[in-house]
Design a protein that fits this description.
It comes from Dentipellis fragilis. By secondary structure, the chain is an alpha+beta fold. It contains 13 helices and 21 strands. It has three domains: 92 residues, no CATH class; 127 residues, Sandwich (Immunoglobulin-like), CATH 2.60.40.150; 272 residues, no CATH class. An eight-stranded mixed beta sheet has the order 15-12-13-17-16-19-20-21, sandwiched between helices. The chain has a five-stranded antiparallel beta sheet with strand order 9-10-3-6-11. Strands 5-4-7-8 form a four-stranded antiparallel beta sheet.
Length: 527
């Protein structure tokens, strides 16, 4: 790997540009008819600008989009020092000159790291990392427990990324306290090939280890699509909420899970259309309205969200690659509401509350009857962390082909074609039913092999399917009537009470995956 360093002067900028050009087109020296003059003119500032401008013009003349990215960024990524500054200047000049900046599709494999410092008094470190492309899209890794040589081998596919983009990675140590410890960071350009980067600490910029990754680059498959489109793999985290379990004194059958699933291509289907909070809905007014009362409600809900979505070393993690992976998520396991031993490995007939969040384009959901919803003004606001808008929200439930009413419990789940029924049943955000076709297409894009049915909350077909699901759970799976809606047993401390206490005490936590009342009468929206 080259060790050339740039100190930010015109001379060194000129040298780097010449080096980059030599790597881009070794045959350039034989081309004389259109080749721009690359000699540095007098005047340091002007010379640097002219050199960079000539460099971009030269690329436009001699390089195709693919060649520009493949060769130029390979050279930049192998340089050290302030090459990020050079890339930033390249981007700025490209925009200034209105040049046609090429876009590419990236597949980034985060391999692992070594030489990390010991961070914990007992043990070594629990590292994870946060990666960003130009602060436009973010990837959060899993936590590797008690190791200074973590191996992740995690993939990140992003479509339509500018060829001059930068990848910024911050390495952290998961802590049991409210704040995680900072290990270090690095930035590289997104040229193709294997990468080895030094992790730079905060104090004196000392090296805190080495990080390995690999980047594959391809021409854009959907050049007219928006930039920075997440394209998989579909990852999910399952939060068992151990803190919530301890705080609310609930037993094993009521240790409910929350899921966060990173689904592909949300902007491809929703574009810039989002669903703001419903100003005609009283519960939403109490959350998002002005005044200290609403501020207190929001603070309590946000504290509850942090507890529900806390990132811990005990979180579940997985990748959705085939339909059976989705089915496994929907099994009635020991740590889910109303589960019984005989039904642990069967699809659970249950209704889920969901939101598709804007900030990270994640699909967040939990059982609608989960006890942690008790006393919160809105289930959907809890999942959405009180964001004023979401891409979409509502409820969904699985069902066998033909519906639960005609299903026999003697039939193995593997012998059945499964369907997902999803709706816009959310009073807090009151999603536009005209976007239901887009929602259906989004889920079909992410979950091929499933029949997707998207119904408006007032559609009688939805009511029939949902009630059949609940009736089956009561009759055949041992679910109790009171478990269909959030409730607290006598003497049980609720999550909302604990969240309010946390807010009043000024305590907080920074451990979520970000940096989400019961069902009402039939026909009324879910909160």
């Amino acid at each position: 790997m080259d060790s050339a360093r740039a100190e930010g002067t015109p001379d060194t900028a000129f040298a780097i540009v010449k080096c980059m050009l030599g790597r881009v087109l070794p045959e350039a020296s034989t081309v004389t008819d259109q080749r721009p003059e690359l000699e540095r003119p007098p005047g340091s500032n002007k010379g640097e600008r002219d050199i960079l401008s000539d460099f971009l013009r030269y690329i436009n003349i001699y390089c195709s989009m693919s060649k520009f990215f493949t060769h130029v960024h390979e050279a930049v990524s192998k340089a050290r020092g302030n090459t990020t500054d050079i890339a930033a200047k390249t981007r700025a000049f490209a925009e200034e000159k209105m040049l046609d900046v090429p876009y590419v599709d990236l597949t980034i494999k985060f391999i692992g790291a070594s030489g990390l410092p010991k961070m914990d008094v007992v043990g070594s470190a629990d590292p994870y990392f946060i990666a960003k492309l130009d602060d436009k899209i973010k990837f959060v890794s899993t936590v590797k427990v008690n190791t200074l040589t973590p191996v992740w081998n995690e993939m990140w596919c992003v479509k339509n990324v500018p060829a001059h983009a930068n990848l910024h990675v911050q390495v952290m140590d998961k802590d049991a306290g409210p704040k995680d410890d900072y290990i270090g960071r690095f930035s590289i350009t997104v040229g193709p090939g294997a990468k080895e980067a030094e992790i730079e600490g905060f104090i004196l910029k000392r090296t805190k280890g080495t990080f390995w990754l690999h980047i594959d680059v391809n021409p854009p498959s959907r050049p007219n699509a928006p930039a920075y489109i997440f394209d998989g793999p579909i990852r999910f985290t399952r939060h068992f909420s151990p803190t919530v379990g301890l705080l609310t004194s609930i037993n094993d059958e009521r240790l409910y899970s929350t899921w966060k699933m990173y689904i592909r291509g949300v902007p491809l289907f929703f574009g810039t259309t989002t669903q703001g909070w419903n100003r005609d809905y009283k519960a939403a007014q109490s959350i998002f309205g002005p005044g200290p009362g609403s501020l207190a409600v929001r603070s309590s809900i946000q504290a509850g969200h942090r507890m529900l979505y806390a990132r811990t070393t005990r979180n579940g993690f997985g990748i959705i690659e085939k339909p059976t992976d989705i089915l496994n998520l929907l099994h009635g396991g020991k740590n889910t509401l109303g589960s019984r031993t005989f039904a642990e490995h069967r699809i659970k007939p249950v209704v889920y509350t969901y939101v598709i969040a804007i900030d990270d384009q994640s699909f967040r959901f939990s059982e609608t009857g989960a006890a942690f919803f008790v006393d919160f003004a809105s289930k959907h606001a809890l999942h959405a962390n009180c964001q004023e808008a979401v891409y979409y929200s509502g409820e969904f439930h699985p069902r066998p082909e033909g519906g639960w009413a005609s299903f026999s419990d003697d039939t193995p789940d593997e012998a059945v074609k499964w369907e997902l029924v999803i709706d816009n049943n959310s009073g807090t955000y009151s999603p536009d039913p005209m976007m239901l076709p887009a929602l259906k297409e989004l889920l079909e894009y992410n979950f091929p092999g499933f029949a997707i049915y998207a119904f408006d909350r007032q559609d009688p077909r939805l009511t029939e399917s949902r009630e059949a699901c609940r009736a089956y759970a009561l009759k055949y799976r041992g679910v109790k009537q009171e478990e269909l809606q959030p409730h607290a047993n006598a003497g049980e401390e609720t999550l909302s009470h604990q969240a309010a206490a946390t807010t009043e005490s000024g305590q907080g936590t920074d451990t979520t995956d970000e940096t989400p009342g019961a069902d009402t009468e039939q026909g009324a929206p879910s909160s």
